[in-house]
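request received
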Amino acid sequence: MPGELPPAGATWSERRRRALADPAMRAAVAKSTRSLAAKKEAAFAAYPAGETMRTRAVIARRSSLARVDALLDELTRRVEARGGHVSRAAGPADVGRYVLDVARRRGVGRVVKSKSMATEEIGLNEQLETAGLHVRETDLGEYIIQLAGERPAHILVPASHKTRQQVRALFDEEAARCAVDPPTGDATPELTVFARRQLREDFLAADMGISGGNFLVAETGTLVLITNEGNGRMTTSLPRVHIAVVGIDKIVATWADLADLLQQPALSGTGQRLSTYTTFITGPRREGELDGPEEFHLVLLDNGRHELLGTEFVDILACIRCGACLNVCPVFRTIGGQAYGSMYSGPIGVVLTPLLGGLERAPELPKSACALCYACADACPMEIDLPRHILALRRTEVERGMEPWSDRLTFELWGRFWANPAGFRFTGRIARLGQRVYVRDGRLKGAPGLVGGWTATRNAPPLARESFHEWWARRRAPRTGS
Amino acid sequence: MARQLVRAFDDGATDGSPAERPPVIALSGSCAAMIKHEMPELLERDALQRGRTPATATRWRRRAEALADRAVELSEWLDRQDAPGPAGVEAARAEPGGSAPLKVASHTGCHMRRLLGVTEPPLRVLRRAGAEPTELVDAEQCCGFGGSFGLLEPDISAAMADAKLASLATARRDGVACLVSSDLGCLMQLGGRLDRRGDEFPMLHLAEAVDLADRHRLTPADIGRAARSQEADPDAR
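response:
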């Protein structure tokens, strides 16, 4: 079954316009991506074992995906044997229904969440809030984004497009709403103290914790969470009920596989050897244990993933959401994450958004949000061939006739004329006549149709009065001919 | 277009070893990458889509591969020619108190850098030509040309060019006399953007820089003159 993603919101041209008109955001994105990319390089350079593990991790991910159904069955048996509940969800509505069912049964009013791309993907917060639940994001970046009423702009660092001053303004507003003291200043520690104080109250009052999951280990039925703030542990241990919403692609067969994978999101994402907190959860609290939830639910989310198995795009499911491709992408660095109109931005978003949500939902991404520079292919620790996938999606759009008729006609004529020397020379002569209208001060400053896109922001040298072929014929032909 | 290119360089001698046949020199890293990495698969797929037999499609792939084997990017080819630098350059270097080498910014296009893995040859060629090449800050970031992307997204593309030109501005403060690249796409993008901004800083193709050096004219004044005459009649040179 195909998946479903929340709508993009504004149109592509509107999102692009907003992004390019926001120099503060662009400077913040450039700064954070440059720093994360450099940290990744330094981390691998200082840790040769990381590279060996990375190679083994790629193999582990691919071999797990090759038998994902069998592994999901094994995982389900293990989780249930430890007293947990497992549910399969085809898409957003299934997850919403399941979570609301549990919430109603257990009298849940307040929910805390740790960072989860899967729940962003299905718009879970909106579904729960519509049903009257109070939902609080507890990852610092997600908390900022929630207060701003935005979507995460980066897979790993969702609020990296915001400046400290902007964050302080959001916190001041929140303080006024809650009638508490605002932050004492806009230094990072001062902002963090405010968030800690606020979130602590939310953790203590919450009835339900919702998390995502970085990995699932089939052989023991274990959910693995890696975080840097410790909020994941609070979310999964303080409230009475814990629900984890995890994509089916997160599964690995064994702990040996996990050992190779565990450091990879940190190494490639933030340049750490390992994230600060690594949490393993196998079922709910057992008798004699002091903490942990009374109920543990695991919702396995499909949302279009199963359909990718056995296609040329299958390796996209090996993604570990480290964000390394975003950090090196020149387009991401220029327009930031919000412009993609999807919780998945950057190169992975260009591929994953249409694959999960349908090409019709984001037809602009493959052709307009990628310069095919191949930086993402080099950066991806899971060796996902993102440029090839982007080309394949562009080709699919052309095959389905999704591009404007004028572009189609331009490329078709272009290809036809330039397929032989006579056609090539003919277009040169025509262009030489036509360009007279557009040449100013010896520069080509305008052009019709698709080429007008070039001259909208750049000049071009005009075609020479005499082509090389003509010059060659005039200068050299008589000498060799007679 | 790709079929025509393969035909044009195909002399029918499919069995001769690539070493015995003359190399095909590409004047843009991106062109070399297209020929070496994309065309064999492209032509095979194209033949199948046009309803040709699998045997014919395989033959197209082979012909494209034969061209791919012969194709070499200009800086890589120049680097392999073990020729000494221009006599004038050697003399200037040997001479105590001779002029310091001219600082130039070197920009390597994305396909050349990542698909061909050619990053050192342009620097070596420039050094041999008597220049002191430096790479820009964020050198590995795309200039925004991007083929059809640059036509479809003029504003994003120009913003990417502006980021590159900001790096170049830093290098200019450090005294680089021009920007040299082995990719015509990047040169058209960065030069076109600079020109739109009314800035006449010279940009040269590697071949032009080497040509100037060979004629002992790799000097700020001659570079500027060469860059300005790029659109002029070939006869004028």
